[in-house]
Amino acid sequence: MRIAMLSPIAWRTPPRHYGPWENVASLLTEGLVARGHDVTLFATGDSKTKGRLHAICERGYEEDPSIISKVWEGLHISEVFENAGDYDIIHNNFDFLPLTYTGLIKTPVITTIHGFSSPGILPVYKKYNTRVFYVSISDADRSPDLDYIKTIHHGIDIDQFDFQPEPEDYLLFFGRIHHDKGAKEAIEIAKACNKRLVLAGIIQDEPYFNQHVKPYLNNHNTVYVGSVGPVQRNHLLGKAYALLHPINFNEPFGLSVIESMACGTPVIAFDKGSMPELIETGKNGFLVKSVDEAIQAVSHIKDIDRADCHYHVEQHFTVDLMVEKYIQVYETILKDAERVDQHY
Fold it and tell me: Which residues share a beta bridge with 3?
């Protein structure tokens, strides 16, 4: 199967630190290549892949301020569709903009919807609803206005995450420093529990960081370590007593949640969005509705078997499972296309 994998160009694929969409595109690409498929990854020029790399933009625009994002996004996306005839299928991980090219080609396009940044982008998805095959990353993140071929949860390379049966005594916040992710609430929870809190992630909202995070930082109880790479991420997640995930939005998926559980670390998350699809209360963490409930949950973390957290990821959220499900979707789409061609 010849597959064009379209990744965003905000960050390198795979990302050095942050870049969830690029991360999924990379895992999927490498998994498909390992199964013998002919995959061309359309990504930044500094990206890494065992497949073919097709690049127009040398670096991610979030990593190089001199790059004008809209100019290079246009060049990047058009490159895929101008070469559409070379592929059996195009897999779009780039949100809504590539959909506007799909009426100009015959190659089937599958789009993984990694979340809706706002209701304002729905008109594009609705226009191409009957032309493009949509995959949702959780049942919670489906729009009633769209048709979906399947829900496929993200998977991780579980071998990159070391299981740690014995944690240290700190709580961890791992994500964007932004109101949506709940860094402020994590600080409140840790303070009330009299536990050390480590915060890791990019600062996406500087005023929010300055008002709700920075005043509480010190070298003892509340520590911010910035954006971390794979080695430090593995250590932080594995040695945490629990991951705090007090989100203030309906999160489409939570990669850090399953990464944490892969290391054996339970998760305390606000019961929003996709969290009930990832967490079984009392088994691998706790779903809570408030800061007060999260504080109570911290005292029950000791009742959770960390091996159960790891096992849950092995059973439901590995990259192998994700890749196999996407291959099934590709095959279904191509068989349907073949039947249509034979009919005409």
Answer: 39, 89
